């Protein structure tokens, strides 16, 4: 998708030339009052034909000048060129008149008279050509800017995702190291197996920015398996999903960091454990995700900056959906925490 | 009944891991260890083990090639071990008993051994392994009281370490019995294992959704979401189909 060329985009040759063809129609209309006046119509036909012939080299000349000469110079050059072409037309017309004996001899002064029929038409053609060329170049430039923005957004989303993986990985490795130090071999082993499951799932998933809700729930499930080993019965989990939502499109890795946040800052900090509740529902054309967890009152000293997972989710939602999403984070004085997300509902195709 | 086991893996540490896990089971006798494919074929001839733990990637001849080289009737019960998922399909085509991913999960390992015991009992014509009636009532503690939970109240069952968590509506009752053991006592026409840590009551399943890694996601009637591992999905689908036509 990256366009490497920095040259101005050139329209296909036939397009501006075709845009100049209606000028022939104008010439025909102007010739109508002269029908029946001797050879007048024949001369008009001659001018129209020469116009069509001249526009071909004129198109080439204009293209050649573009980007090589500053525009006032190019205008002067085109005016001069079209003037010469018009003189040539007149010369041709005089030769035709001599052939029909309408003129006694070749008159050099007549070459410079009555140029309006040819010269104006050729100038008008140059103007049309310039406008068509410019419009096309503008369109191409807009497309290029759009591509560049899409690429930038992709890169940002990818960077945000890569930020999450190591964060989670090191947390888990640290938990395993703790289990080993405590000689809880069985648990450490279980956690290693679950971590391997999780890595297999994330590695084979590819680069998609959005995944079906079912995929995201399964991935979050792998993560929850790990936390259950660490916290055991202290973690009470409630997961409720409305009917026909498993295909709904959600950002990849949307829920895992939120659930991780809920557990690390909420449940794990409570001596008696606590409850995490996740509900997903559909309301009209919106998909609503509601995450609640019990927590402990936070001292003002800690959390100088928002948790990385939360900030990351927020940024990705903004990149993906702009103003079409809503994100609401509410921390009660008692430490209970509620996250609500509303996204446009869209079903994704089933995996092959 | 004893299980005569052969281990085949080119990595000493991996063989040690299997050996250590087998040590906890009194009915297992280790008959040998091999480090490459040809040695496995020779050991199978000489020792005729009941059960083979077989690594997929080995020098010379891969684990799958070893199975392929044997006529079906001479293949031992085989549990394949590998870090990769992509061989699973071929493994089951070759009638492997189970397919374990490394690092090995303790519960899955015990599960595989159980399968081997059952398959062996069946092979030896031991039909008393399964009594005809299944548990349909469970005693759970509620503070100091004991409460009875009947099997048809249960929505699904979750592993909680050495306990089984019985989900009845909004409530969770803990039963002091590992999921592993409980699984064998439940009526297979009503309860199906869907995951190493979950059993579900068939008539509670509302939706089933395939995932890109061939696992599935189940949604129960009350909105609960459960994962189903691909190794259990076919059995689940078959059970769902047969429960539609009683």
Structure characterization notes:
The complex is a heterodimer of chains A (352) and B (246). By secondary structure, chain A is of the alpha+beta class. Chain A is 57% helix and 13% strand. In chain A, helix 3 packs antiparallel against helix 4, helix 7 runs parallel beside helix 8 and helix 8 runs antiparallel to helix 9. The N terminus of chain A is likely disordered. With 246 residues, chain B is of the alpha/beta class. Chain B has a 5-stranded parallel beta sheet with strand order 2-1-3-4-5, sandwiched between helices. Chain B has a 5-stranded antiparallel beta sheet with strand order 10-9-8-12-11. In chain B, strands 13-14-15 form a 3-stranded antiparallel beta sheet. In chain B, a hairpin with a 5-residue loop joins strand 13 and strand 14. The chains are: A alpha+beta (352), B alpha/beta (246). The interface between A and B is medium-sized, with 33 and 30 residues.
How is the topology of this model organized?
The complex is a heterodimer of chains A (about 350) and B (about 250).
Chain A: H1 14-20, H2 22-31, H3 40-65, H4 71-99, H5 116-181, H6 185-203, E1 210-212, H7 213-231, E2 235-241, E3 249-251, H8 255-265, E4 274-283, E5 286-293, H9 308-321, E6 326-331, E7 337-344
Parallel strand pairs in A: 2-4
Antiparallel strand pairs in A: 1-3, 4-5, 5-7, 6-7
Helix pairs in contact in A: 1-5, 2-3, 3-4, 3-5, 4-5, 5-6, 5-9, 6-7, 7-8, 8-9
Chain B: E1 3-8, H1 12-22, E2 28-34, H2 37-47, E3 51-55, H3 63-69, E4 77-82, H4 88-93, E5 98-101, H5 106-123, E6 137-142, E7 145-150, E8 156-160, E9 163-168, E10 171-175, H6 179-183, E11 191-195, E12 198-201, E13 205-210, E14 216-220, E15 225-228, H7 230-244
Parallel strand pairs in B: 1-2, 1-3, 3-4, 4-5
Antiparallel strand pairs in B: 6-7, 8-9, 8-12, 9-10, 11-12, 13-14, 14-15
